[in-house]
Amino acid sequence: MVSVSSSISTALGIGSGIDTGSLVSSLVSATRDPKESAINNRQSLNSARISALASASSSIDTFADALNNLLSSSGYAGAPGSNDPSIASVSLIPGGVPALPVQLEVEQLASAQVLASTPVATPAAALGLGAFTLTVGGQSATIDITSANNSYAGLASAINAAGLGVTATVVTDNQGTRLVMKGASGGANSFTFTKDSGDASLDAFTWDGATGGMARQAQARDSIILVDGVRQFYSSNTIDTAVAHLRIDLNKAAPGTQITLASTEPTTSMRDLVVEFVDAYNTMMKALNTATATGADSSSSGVLNGESAARDMKRQLSRMTSTALATSGNYRTLVDLGVKTNRDGTLTLDTKALDVAIAADPSAITQMLNPAVASTATPGLAGLMDQVRDSIQAKDGALASAQAKYNALAEKLTKQLEKLDEQMETYEARLTATYSEMETRLAALKATQSYLDQQIAMWTKSDD
Predict the structure, then answer these.
(1) Which of 122, 113, 106, 206 lies closest to 167, judged by CA?
(2) Where are the alpha helices (DSSP H) in 243-298?
(3) CA of 261: how far to CAs of 41, 94, 366, in Å?
(4) 249 and 282 share a domain?
């Protein structure tokens, strides 16, 4: 037979050894864990998407920057050259493409007028007092010799200070000391140095254009060249305007001898460029394909599967092969050079077709892939990649929208975790208070039980 006291103890759970702290912890975990796991899983996926988009954008940056750096080197541009640099050498002037080849004949080099005075053995002696007029191409300046500059050095300094392009120096050698005057090159820069007044000794430094106290060592002359048979005259031996965008440096007169100025095309470099472009493009596209792959379930699908920003990247990249890089000619797009797009978006290069195109028109291929002057219509390969990058990374583009969306979701999920923590703290506190109150009541019931046990024992004893 079960005693009354035993039944009460069983009903109240007194002496059951229940750990209310552990019970509260278990109840809180049972409530928290499913919600926290769901949020963490969403955070993990969201972080992976943010990272994947950033990685894709970074790879486009790297690709575009590499193309720009590569094509800025001289090995990927058509370079003008001369078949006889001893007569004339050439270099490219930025801003355009020279219309080459041309035939050049250097009939005469430009020269500057040079005058020299008669050497004297006593350069420290005074020259005399007076005034000269220096005239160059219709411009004149007065050169005064006073007690302050009455010397070779003083006269040279006064001539130089006139600012008419005539340079005076004092030369001392085994023959003695003399004044040397030199003008700028070109026939228009011949000059005279005439005495206006002063001592007769100053006559030793005069020149009227034909005679004088000084001797003419060299005559001012223009350079004379023939470009494709057309005679042209210049005051310098460095000519920038005979052929647009081409600098010609005349090194030697060679009347009757024609040399060829032409562009040498980097055909090997251009071929390597297209091959390397296709390889790098495919590496980037394969990474995007992996990120956007559709699997049998979410665990086997790419992290960017279904993401419109990733599809937009692939779409814009795929347009590169059919975008015009030249406005005329037989070769305008990468497709014309043998570049084809596969079903998965990667590229295949027909190297035979590329070789045929380069052999047929190397200059056109060079200008198409790396124009001397890029424009919106003729951007070149690097410029085209820049356009694609700018479009993909536009502030109002699909990539920016997706990144903003995922960043906002990351903040939202972080706040959800913070809110869950707050809710669980409140829940735990409520449970703790409930079980604490229960313990208090159980203690009171236990006291009552003890009293009843005593009374029952007394009743039982009395019956005996």
Answers:
(1) 113
(2) 267-291
(3) 69, 17, 18
(4) no
Q: Which domain-ending residue is among 191, 218, 245?
A: 218
Q: Are 213 and 195 in contact (CB under 8 A)?
A: no
Contacts of 387 (CB under 8 A, 6+ apart): 379
Q: Are residues 416 and 284 in the same domain?
A: yes
CATH for 133: 3.30.70
Whether 393 and 462 map to the same domain: the answer is: yes
- Residue 105 — φ and ψ, nearest 5°? -125, 130
- 443 and 415, same domain (yes or no): yes
What does the pLDDT read at residue 437? 78
Domain that holds residue 149: 112-218
Identify whether 266 is preceded by a cis peptide bond (ω within 30 of 0): no
Average pLDDT over residues 197-221: 96
What gap in Å lies between CA 85 and CA 64, rounded to an integer?
Answer: 37
Q: How many residues does the chain have?
A: 464
DSSP 334-402: SGGGTEEE-TTS-EEE-HHHHHHHHHH-HHHHHHHHS-SS--SSS-HHHHHHHHHHHHHT-TTSHHHHH
- What is the count of structural domains for the chain? 3
Q: What is the dihedral of CA 50, 51, 54, 59, to 10 degrees?
A: -150
What are the pLDDT digits (tens) for 45-57? Answer: 989 899 999 999 9
Q: Among 209, 231, 264, identify where a domain stops.
A: 264
At 155, which helix (H) or strand (E)?
helix 152-161
Distance of CA 36 to the CA centre of its chain: 45
Q: What is the pTM of this model?
A: 0.61
